[in-house]
Amino acid sequence: MTLPIQLLWVIPALPLLAASIGALTPRSGRKLAAGTAIVAMAAAFLVSCSALLGALAEPAKHAFYNFAWFDLGASSVRLGWLLDPLTAFMCVMVTFVGLLIFIFSTGYLREDENFARFFCFLSLFAAAMLGLLVANSLLLLFVCWELVGLASYLLIGFWFHKPAAAAAAKKAFITTRIGDLGLLLGMLWLYDSTGSLLFYDAGQGILEPDTLGALAAQTTIGGLAVSTAIGLLVFCGAIGKSGQFPLQVWLPDAMEGPTPVSALIHAATMVAAGVFLIARVYPLMAADQALAGVPFHALTVVAGIGAITALLGAVIAVGQNDIKRVLAFSTVSQLGYMMLALGVGSWTAAIFHLLTHAFFKALLFLGAGSVIHAAHHEQDIRLLGGLRGPMRLTFLTFAIGTMALAGVPFLFSGFWSKEGILHAAHGWSVSPLPLYAGLAAVVLTAFYMTRLVAEVFFGSPRSHSAEHAHENPAVMTAPLTLLAVCAVALGFVGTPAWPWLQARLNGQTAVYGHSLLEGGGLMILSIVLVALGLGAGWAIYARRPRVSQTSVDPLAANAPRLFAALGARLGFDEFYAATFGRMTAATATFADGLDRYVFDGAIRFLIRLGEFAGLVNRETDEDLLNGGFDAGSEALRSAGKGYSRAQTGDAHSYLRVAAIGFVLLVLIIMLGGLR
Amino acid sequence: MNSLPLLSLIVFTPLAGAVILGLLRGLNPATSRALALFFSLSTLGLGLAAVTGFDPAQTSAQFVERHEWISAFNAHYHLGLDGLSLVLVLLTGVVTPTALLASWTVSRNPRLFGSLFLGLQGAALGVFLALDFFHWFLFWELSLAPAFFLIKLWGGPGSSRAAYQFVVYTIGGSAFMLLGFAAIFAASGTLDFVQLAQLATEGTLGARLAAIGGWWPQAVFLGVLLGLAVKVPLWPFHTWLPPAYAEAPTGVSMFLTGVMSKMGLYGFLRILWPLFPAQLHDASGWLRWLALAGVILGAFAAMRQTNLKRMIAYSSLNHLSYCLLALFAVSAATGRAGMSSDASTAALSGTILQIFNHGLSAAALFFCVGILESRARGAVAIGLNDFGGVRTDAPIFSGLCGVALFSSLGLPGLNGFVGEFLIFRGVFGLDPWAAGLACLGLLATALFMLTFWQRVFHGPRAGATLGGFSDLRGVEYAPLVPLVALMFILGVAPQLLAHLINPLVTSWAGHLTLP
Amino acid sequence: MSANSLQLCLLFSSALFCIGLTAALSRSNAILVLLGIELMLNAANINFIAFWRFGPTPAPATGVLFVLFSIAVAAAEAAVGLALVIAIYRHQKNIRLQEATSLKG
Q1: pLDDT confidence of C30, banded at 50, 70, 90?
Q2: Is residue A495 classed as helix, strand or coil in its secondary structure?
Q3: What is the helix (H) or strand (E) element at residue A111, kind and residue range?
Q4: Is 80 exceeded by the pLDDT of residue B438?
Q5: Distance (Å, rounded) from C-alpha A382 to C-alpha A606?
Q6: Which residue has the higher pLDDT, B1 or C18?
Q7: What are the chain B neighbours of A178 within 8 Å (beta carbons)?
Q8: Interatomic CA distance for residues B492 and A48, integer angstroms
Q9: Which of A356, B128, B247, B400 could pair covalently with B156 via S-S, beta carbons 3.0-4.6 A apart?
């Protein structure tokens, strides 16, 4: 049974529904919240499988269904669903790994009082990731992309009463948002130049040849093709989300969240989003490949960043003492591999590695979670040790995950997917450096994973918690076992002899396998390197296991400064705090000071000015104007006093005056004075 | 169209309520609160009634009422409603009742409080519906008096100074506007917005003003600009805003930021832009920098605030500056060859959506800060560092506040995103560098919002929450739940608002010309 | 003849006026001062009649009408004057004008 494309929204909607139910259940509704989340995830898995069947039937087709979201101008802003093998494989992976992590979480967080809330957030996380996968619109993808960021924020800060967790959550959100702004700008640019954000839209979409041709034909600042510039901006988003150099700093801090969250972030959801985004817009990223006169191509930058990240992550992982941080930096490194693969032109290799990595990294994180849970939340590998005996199943599955990650040949999936990447890097004509970085990282990966296993599972317990560790219940080990099976088996769908997965992703129905021996030299080289790393790790850490908490790491004994620098993650955090952090704080102080002193000061100055004018006014009023009035009225008053003296009150005198006046009048008239 | 004078009813029902509450002296507190709420809800009811009779496709004013008033000034009683006004009426209808509900616990003379509040509401509605400068200005100034008393009498310790500053600053601005309109009246003989806009598009208005003296059009434009800029506020005319918002009682802060700041933006869209297209076009080059400064420096200044209300006030400055940025970008690009009308449509739609959405989220945030303030029992100023771990004790409050917070920082899926996205889309199309710089504002907003969240809600209990923090109870749900529900609804279905304004905005963007 | 008659009348009225003026200025009794004032008024009345009778174009009864009004006014004035005199008497128990100076400024 295949899923009609119109109903593709069901896949993200199921966990979203579970999330809303979880959000509305009270704290006591633990079973309800966890139950709905798991059931919804299982249902989403089944639906994804049916979607995958549909996609595999016609792998070359990008089935889409678009609809109007809201009116804008004469047209409208449209969103849509998209189903192709890429989406379908990713959906199946996310729902499956997610489901196992959900089940594991019911055991891991059994005692947490916010259990119901945890499943709400987990479901939201999965829903956002699935929405991102099925989106046929960069806008919808961006919406889900941000929701992934929100969910990761909520989950990393799940133990929000721990200040470190709260700070890590904020750091993750802000760091990824820096990248997201690039993505936003890229999206705006795309929208502005093409008038659409739909990936596929019957010839009008942004990933279809007509549009891409137009984009690649225009040039912008620095002589770059517009498509290159947009591609790089979009890649900024991927740098942030996938923890690429230079924004890798949030990923290790995200370990503050509960371990299942780390598993989800590192395997299925968050960091995979960046790689998926680049794979999704791969036609856009690659649109400038044919151009000759441009300074550089977008994918070159992707390859460079990927190579740097692959090496950097692996180097730093060597110096970490926290079990989860080692794994975190290994994720950084592996994501670098994927970006490298994307950059050198083999996006199918990247997705293959993304899928296999999802399984074995989920396995490793859940294994680490199992250890941490058993050891009463002890995460420092110096304090663990000797867990091989009491936690047999965890040890076995963890070892399988380690071998997959290290790329132990032939049996383990990581080998095949990593081989694909190295092969692609080998074939890249621009520069051999990514290949060298990849090969160097192979050694380091094998080395630090061996160190991790040796420290945690071999030797003797070095703390009280490690001594009392015992195997976890089946609800936690069963997912481990399933994941371990996948970590082995998944490799066989993409071997060079039978590259089924790559073929389907590329839209081919038939599989054209080539010989295992093609590129055999490279394969042998990488096998040698893996052996070198494993052997070195075994020789240094497992043969003479650490005896006490305080014993010095053999590497630290030989190169204390280098080891300390690695432990301090090469000072990226300090560097950013000293530059960007300071700059932000300074800008904030400036903006605030501007208001407080300059503008408020200006207002106060105006008020002072007004007061001064008032003062001047009062002085002039009292001395000049009022003085004049006073003098005038004084004169009037004294004149009145003088005149009132004529008012004698004696009627005779009045009469006398009247008579004299009369006589005077008569005389004047008689003398002709009025003529 | 409709024999009932619907718009007059919208404007005068709250005013009538204000008078009734003012006259009934012996009313007990509970009844006066209920009565005030009832009258304020009338706006929502009548506004929804207007939505049902509203024809979005018609871009001119609807439900028009026009009567002779003062023939000496050629002043008419002229009310009309288009998509922009309708959105603002609905916003007022939503925010005012929630603000009154948020003030439910005001115990000092709730009758007078309700009466003044209704007066404020009526004045705001009058501004949003008037089409004649004469009573537009009347309502514009009328709104100040209740706001002044509400801030001064019910506000915090520094409220007296803040209220004076607010009123004097605003009146100072609008005095220039009044002078400007006196000149316009002298030049054109009319105060009717529709006629004036007509004159302006023909270029007659500018020509007539220029006939008085060469610099008159610019001077009048500056006067009107100043009056509006103070109200919005446009950076750097914003210094009255943080103290006023911080000192006002919670409900009044909600109204001030939710509705009153929109009066200024409404003025920009309804008066300044249509009446002075050429002058605004000339000025937009540098006005754009002011708006950008508001976006960026507003957000960064918010980062430095320790008083939570001041922080939200600065975030308001930041959010409203996006609207102005969009308008200025459109105006600056008007007449440029190859200007994208899609981008203008997006920018203007985004502005109107942002007006509504910011009203919701800022009101909700102020309410949340008000809750924090009330729980702090007045012991301390509501500072960033006076709380901690609120989420441990009050998960429901924290959840709802978190939604408001993320809505404010533009998280997709909530209401804030659509407006901001459209503004950015439009501004990018018209002025890519401005859009790029404005991104810094987005980042800084996320930074301080999350710092707020981290300090207050996360971490161990501290400060005022040491003694426990009770979750929302009773009437405290009433303001927050509808606002948060609207955030979700409008985030998922922006079409609900977009279809009301889209034809109007499309016609604006389609007729962008300089006289 | 007519001119002489006019002169006679004027001489008579002048005499009457002078008698009245003398009385008003010299007597201290308020009632006698009032009488003097009445005499002067009547002198003026006689002048009205004389100029009317011997004037160039005697219009019908204009002089008589003036005089009638004047007499009416004089009657009213006398009434007010006598009332004032009574008030002064009540106040100072005599009607000597020299003593009634309470309106002095």
Answers
A1: confident
A2: strand
A3: none
A4: yes
A5: 67
A6: C18
A7: 443
A8: 24
A9: B247
Of A645, A652, A659, the CB nearest to C105: A645
Question: Are the CB atoms for A309 and A339 separated by under 8 Å?
Answer: yes
> How does A285-317 read in b/e, with b if 16+ C-beta sit within 10 Å?
bbbbeeeeebeebbbbbbbbbbbbbbbbbbbbb
pLDDT band at B1 (very low <50, low <70, confident <90, very high): very low
> Are B246 and B317 a contacting pair, CB within 8 Å?
no
Q: Which residue of C has its CA nearest to A647?
A: C105
Which stretch of A14-18, A473-477, A639-643 has the lowest confidence by average pLDDT?
A473-477
The token duo for A578 is 């000293």
A673: Cβ–Cβ under 8 A, 6 or more apart, which residues? none
pLDDT surpassing 50 at residue C1:
no
A 10 A CB-CB count for B212 gives 14
Which residues in A lie closer than 8 A to residue B434 (C-beta atoms)?
none
pLDDT at residue A515, as a whole number: 58
Of A160, A592, A600, the CB nearest to B391: A160
Four-CA torsion A264, A265, A266, A268, nearest 10 degrees: 50
Instruction: Give the pLDDT of residue C79.
Output: 92
Task: Count chain A–chain C contacts defined by CB atoms under 8 A.
Answer: 36
pLDDT at C75: 92
Q: What is the mean pLDDT of chain A?
A: 82
Looking up tokens 């509400």 gives B150
B460, A210 Cβ separation under 8 angstroms: no
Q: How far is B299 from chain A (nearest CA, A)?
A: 8
**A221 in contact with B at a CB cutoff of 8 Å?**
no
Contact assignment for A652 to C25 by CB distance below 8 Å:
yes
Which member of A70, A153, A600 has the closest CB to residue B494?
A70
Q: Which residues does A121 contact at the CB level (< 8 Å), separation at least 6? A: A19, A22, A151, A154, A155, A158
- The per-residue pLDDT for C76 is 92
Interatomic CA distance for residues B320 and B262, integer angstroms: 8
- For B221-234, the pLDDT digits (tens) are 888 888 888 888 88
As a whole number of angstroms, the distance between CA B185 and CA B202 comes to: 17
Radius of gyration of chain B (CA): 22
What is the nearest CA distance from A642 to chain C, expressed in angstroms?
A: 10
C-alpha to C-alpha distance for A237 and A225, rounded to whole angstroms:
19
Three-state SS annotation for B1-70: CCCCCHHHHHHHHHHHHHHHHHHCCCCCHHHHHHHHHHHHHHHHHHHHHHHHHCCCCCCCCEEEEEEEEE
Asked if A377 and A464 touch (Cβ cutoff 8 Å), the reply is no
How far apart CA B489 and CA C54 sit, in angstroms, is: 112
Over 90: is that where the pLDDT of A613 sits?
A: no
**Per-residue pLDDT for C43 more than 90?**
yes
Tokens describing residue B497: 């608002």
* DSSP characters over B66-126: EEEEEGGGTEEEEEEE-HHHHHHHHHHHHHHHHHHHHTTT--S-HHHHHHHHHHHHHHHHH
What is the per-residue pLDDT across B275-320, written as a single tens digit (0 to 9) for each?
888 888 888 888 888 888 888 888 888 888 888 888 888 888 888 8
Distance from CA of A606 to the nearest CA of C (A): 56
Cβ separation C97–A650 shorter than 8 A: yes
| ipTM of predicted assembly, 2 dp | 0.89
Distances from the Cα of C50 to the Cα of A520, B168, C2, C10, C19, angstroms:
160, 81, 11, 8, 19
Question: Mind listing the pLDDT tens digit for each residue in B8-26?
Answer: 888 888 889 888 888 888 8
Residue A313, helix vs strand vs coil: helix
Q: Which residues of A touch C30 (CB under 8 A)?
A: 651
CA B464 to chain centre: 32
Nearest CA-CA distance, residue C79 and chain A, Å: 18
